[in-house]
Specification:
Elements: E1 9-10, E2 15-16, H1 17-32, H2 49-62, E3 72-77, H3 83-95, E4 105-111, H4 114-121, H5 124-127, E5 133-137, E6 153-157, E7 166-171, E8 174-184, H6 190-197, H7 201-204, E9 215-222, H8 231-238, E10 247-249, H9 251-263, E11 271-278, H10 281-284, E12 292-295, E13 298-301, E14 303-304, H11 305-315, E15 320-324, H12 325-333, E16 337-339, H13 340-344, H14 355-370, H15 391-402, E17 415-417, H16 418-423, H17 425-430, H18 435-443, E18 450-456
Parallel strand pairs: 3-4, 3-6, 4-5, 6-11, 11-14
Antiparallel strand pairs: 1-8, 2-8, 7-8, 7-10, 8-9, 11-18, 12-13, 15-18, 16-17
Bound molecules: S-adenosylmethionine (SAM).
Length: 457
């Protein structure tokens, strides 16, 4: 066991990783609501292209079929600010000129956090589809309130990394499980310890932010895989593990996939999920790759996609496909795509720039792309200067942000096509990008932890 520095105070005991991860995440989402997006961005929270690709795919598959009882029920699990649902429904309505699909759709947004669902119900883009959607507060590993075999399509984006995950380590033929324990530097009151233990959201929400001051200690203890869910599948998968590399075992995703199998109707379009993790066994066995992340106190684990594919097959899904997320969006748009951040990371000076100069470069890159890009939705990107930005650069950032187009690239992680980037070559050159930087942005091999799309049918 590791020995925490003496001045740290434990908030509980060492427990398997999934215990503390789910405990902390339910506090995080329960007290922050839609403010979560101040801590991290997702590929769907402002951008529309992934949602449109899903809508185009659903439309192509559903048209020409008639749903049982006249309704295609779609479910999304873990819904954030509701932008994916809103853009999906808007795109479906737009392409369905013959009213073959959109009038029969009902979209159910499922989330564990009431704060999140409150935000969703006030999402203006989604309100345009009033009557076509509903919200249900439910835990994605349970979902017991729905009738089996009643759902036509299930979607989730970046939820598996939040669900229960255990961590396994192989050492000389034996298996060890990761245990975690949270610590604080300052002495917490008895009241706080009780509220923390009981996840008393109303009380915890009144406190100054404590989540990102938690210090996590870890430890590995011997474990018998026979006691784990889907033990036979897991044992066969673990044979491939290299020694000493922590491997996430996303048991919450196992339950979600099993639930999807139970809920999908005889006529269905599968369970589609997007998440961040290792696409192949080689990626899993890559030494030194990260296996967890902390964002503003939220605790996420990378997703082990090869294992989830094995679990999906053992549950009874017969067609399972895995690809990089940008391939899925690119195929829909008929062109290779990257996010704006990927483009900027290939700028020749970016690595040596001060953080505020990187903000200025990002805003310049947005302006350059906005000369050719027109979003189907209006909404100006909010781009505040970060803490510590010197006055001169702060002014420059404010001016650049104010002048951003209301129909421009909607996010710094928004997808842009090769044609759009090449059409903006002239203003990009002025910012210091060379053609070879753009080529390498589109050709870089994917890192061992990437955004991946998996489809279970
Ligand atoms: C990382 S956010 C992603 C949100 C959205 N899908 C997106 O990509 O912007 C995870 C979402 O899953 C929800 N969530 C986390 N754990 C959950 C659980 N056990 N059951 C249902 N929803 C959960 C959170 O409240 C949050 O809305």
């Amino acid at each position: 066991m590791t020995h925490p520095p003496q001045n740290l105070i434990a908030l509980g005991d060492f427990k398997p990783s999934d215990f503390w991860q789910t405990h902390i995440n339910s506090i995080f989402y329960g007290i922050k609501g839609p403010q979560i997006h101040n801590h991290f961005q997702t590929y769907v929270s402002l951008d529309h292209r992934l949602a449109h690709a899903l809508a185009n795919d659903f439309y192509a598959k559903a048209r020409g079929h008639h749903p049982e009882n006249d309704i295609w029920y779609l479910q999304e699990w873990g819904v954030g600010n509701g932008n994916l649902a809103a853009c999906f429904l808007s795109r479906l309505r737009e392409i369905d000129s013959e009213n073959e699909v959109y009038p029969f759709v009902h979209y159910i947004l499922c989330d564990e956090s009431e704060e999140i669902l409150k935000g969703v119900r006030s999402n203006a883009r989604l309100q345009e589809h009033s009557g076509k959607f509903s919200t249900v507060r439910i835990h994605a590993e349970q979902l017991d309130c729905f009738r089996p075999h009643s759902v036509a399509k299930i979607i989730s984006n970046e939820i598996w990394d939040d669900l229960s995950t255990k961590v396994l380590l192989k050492h000389q033929g034996l298996y060890y499980e990761e245990y975690l324990c949270p610590f604080l530097e300052t002495l917490p009151t008895e009241d706080f310890l009780e509220q923390f233990k009981n996840r008393d959201l109303a009380e915890l929400a009144q406190l100054p932010n404590f989540l990102d001051t938690i210090h996590w200690e870890r430890d590995f203890q011997r474990v018998d895989l026979d006691d784990w869910p889907f033990a036979e599948t897991l044992k066969a998968h673990a044979e491939n593990f290299k020694d000493e590399i922590p491997m996430p075992v996303n048991t919450g995703a196992f339950s979600a996939i099993a639930k999807a199998k139970e809920l999908l109707a005889p006529m269905n379009f599968g369970y589609t999920s997007f998440d961040y993790g290792m696409k192949t066994i080689q990626d899993l066995n890559q030494e030194g790759r990260p296996y967890f992340n902390l964002y503003g106190g939220q605790y996420t684990f990378m997703v082990n996609f090869p294992l989830l594919e094995d679990i999906g097959r053992s549950i009874g899904f017969t067609k399972i496909t895995r690809e990089y997320q940008n391939q899925f969006v690119g195929e829909d748009l008929g062109s290779a795509v990257i996010s704006l951040v990927d483009l900027m990371q290939n700028h020749p000076q970016v690595a040596s720039m001060a953080p505020w100069d990187r903000d200025i470069l990002m805003l310049g890159t947005l302006h350059a792309l906005n000369t050719v890009y027109r979003s189907p939705y209006s909404g100006k990107l909010n781009y505040p200067a970060m803490e510590g930005t010197p006055k001169k650069q702060r002014k420059q950032i404010a001016k650049l942000a104010e002048n951003l187009s209301g129909r421009g690239v909607p996010d710094t992680v928004a997808y842009v096509t090769r044609e759009e980037v090449l059409a903006a070559l002239k203003p990009l050159r002025k910012l210091g990008y060379r053609e070879k930087d753009i080529q390498s942005a589109f050709q870089s091999p994917p890192p061992p932890v990437s955004f991946v799309h998996i489809q279970f049918s």
